[in-house]
Amino acid sequence: MLLGPGWALAQDTFTSPRAAAVPGQEAHLAAADAATPPEAMGKRIGIGSAFLRSALIPGWGQKVVGARTAARNYFVADVTLWIGVISFNVYGNWLRDDYRLLAVEHAQVKAAGKSDKYFVDVGNYASLEDYNQSRLQRRDVASLYDPATHYWRWDSEAERARFDRTRLRSERAFNRGELVIAGIIANHIISGIHAAWLANRHNSRLEKESQPGTAYLPALGVKSNGEEIRLSAQWEF
After folding, report:
1. How would residue 223 be classed by pLDDT, with cut points 50, 70 and 90?
2. 231, β-bridge pairs
3. What share of the chain is helix, strand, coil (3-state, %, to 5)?
4. Helices and strands, counts by H and E, the chain
5. Would you tell me the crossing angle of helices 116-124 and 157-210 to the nearest 10 degrees?
6. CA distance 77 to 79
7. Cβ–Cβ contacts within 10 Å for residue 49, how many?
8. pTM surpassing 0.85?
9. In Å, how far are 57, 64, 180 from 183, measured between CA atoms?
């Protein structure tokens, strides 16, 4: 009796659906390709390109890769954040107009051309005399205001407190708008990184699919020709 192992190596080949298309279907397939995301078309996507697209417009890179849900989420988040910035700035400007009008009506302030610091001081002191006196006590002559151009005197403490509350609300609105801008920047960066990661994963998948798959399919058998018995084993890769 003679025992002899035998091995066979086979490789799978992959064919494109387009190769099986008949000539009359070419126009239909071209239209289908135009509506198919790159991932389904088997095209490589530049990682840097995907990052820059989503860093510019969140969701753009994800859409190119074919991740439509992620693309929509990043884009909607960006639009929502921009609406927040606009809303906070509009609200802050309304409040700024309100507190400056209060200063004009109840403290005899000439609001035109005045800085934000000036209005902070108007809210902190009952009159220009009180403010200048405090600066002189600190020997801070450079911070004195000219009575001819920066005069103020509140007609009541209640109105001064109301002015200061409105001014602080305006500042908070502007500060929140700046925080939302930081969120917009973060959303652009995160979207870009995510798009680059998706593109890299997509390209890696294409590389694996372009190579023959490996599968171990053992096949065992016993053959006899009357004089010997042969044991054979076959693996397909």
Report:
1. low
2. 222
3. 65, 5, 30
4. 9, 2
5. 140
6. 6
7. 14
8. no
9. 14, 24, 5
